[in-house]
Amino acid sequence: MDEGPRTGPERREAALRRELWRVRNSASFRLGNHLIEAARKPWKIIFLPLSLPFVTWQIGMELLGKKPRPMSDAMIQLKGGPERCIVLFPTNGVGFGHFTRLYALARRLRRLDSELEIVFFTTQPTLHLPYLDGFPTYHLAGSNKFQGMDSESWNGMVQEMLTLVLETHCPQCFVFDGAFPYRGMLDALDTIAVPQKVWVRRGMFRKGASIPVDSIGKFDLIVHPDDALNDLSPRINHGVQTLSVPPITLIDPDEIWDRTSSRNRLGIPLDARVTYVQLGAGRINEIDSDIRKIVNALLEYKDMFVVLGESLLGDRLKVDIERVIVVRDYPNALFFNAFDYSVQAGGYNSFHEMRIQGIPTLFLPNMETGMDDQLARCRVAEDEGWGLVASGSLLESVQRLLELEVSSEKLEIKNGAEILAKDILSKKNE
């Protein structure tokens, strides 16, 4: 395998080989080739009513991830490794979960090894965030951002771009964070033999889940960040090494701004009470929305200020309400010492941020999140004594929140980013 730098013609040849591989493995080529083979050997025509549906079914299963895709001699494989580099690939979801975990990992890796090159490749649009910390970042917009682009074409772009990134930086380790790996990413990992490949995936692999059959085996380590909930569902026995770590959070408690500094930045009096509100559903200007009802209930208390967390991925909120302040920042955890209370939906990241800080929190769990049981997670906060689940009217729930007495002793929960970073570096140095 070639380990040295590649010249311009060699890179061009590699690109042409990858394109040839994609063409040969495309559905149209394989179906057309099947018909041509039958025309060349007429005796095969007799079997076309059986063989053609079978080939079509096989291709369909591959596209759905139910069967592995074939490799052809048009594909080449290069070897990464000699450079001290790690490539991180967080996908983008409805929020910042995937990105935040790998961003946290990147910051811990840098603390442990300041000379390590850390490169991001991501579909997340907020590229200025890693740039602020000096992490070089490659970006490819999600397929839904391109007009009329089908999945196969987009995955071809993923493969081409990621292969070039891996070939250029020769990483010793590749880390992916996402619910399901992209086909183009898997094909890129077939092209570049990265010594260590890690998949960070919240939640175990449940039986019956739609996971590409050849995806798990591409990785050397599967990392599962823990949840307050115990996942007792039947799991797939996939045979790949796994590592469970505590919840991965971006900001450690000693990095959060002090109460005076954070309140001065927000323009809030030091003697006021402050509630941080971050709910994914509803609009503040819709009178009947939960978020507006919560804000109105809080503002019934004359010494109360409300800080609304606005996502960098969403539209800007149009708010002109006295004692209501909008924060469009990242990470909002920097302001946590300014807050006396919190109102949250109950998603994984926000729940564990509040849990680590011990902020008295009222939860309005989203009951339509599929496999993510937010209600059960939020019940843990009630059991631990620092949170409540909304019940009855929202006005009554807010009143119970303000009367909630929480122990000043915070739960001792380690940051999973530190543990994962040390594990990756220990294997990299073996």
Please give a structural write-up.
- It is a single chain.
- With 430 residues, the protein is of the alpha/beta class.
- The protein has three domains: 8-63, no CATH class; 78-248 and 416-428, Rossmann fold, CATH 3.40.50; 253-403, Rossmann fold (3-Layer(aba) Sandwich), CATH 3.40.50.
- Helices cover 37% and strands 15% of the residues.
- It is built from 13 helices and 15 strands.
- It has helices at residues 8-24, 27-40, 48-63, 97-112, 128-132, 151-169, 183-191, 259-266, 290-299, 348-357, 374-384, 394-403, 416-428, and strands at 78-79, 85-90, 117-122, 137-139, 173-177, 192-193, 196-200, 221-225, 241-245, 273-278, 304-309, 324-327, 341-344, 361-363, 387-389.
- Helix 4 crosses helix 13 (416-428), helix 6 (151-169) runs parallel beside helix 7 and helix 9 (290-299) packs across helix 12.
- It is elongated, with a radius of gyration of 25 Å.
- The two termini are 21 Å apart.
- Residues 1-5 have low confidence and may be disordered.
Short description:
This protein is of the alpha/beta class and 430 residues long.
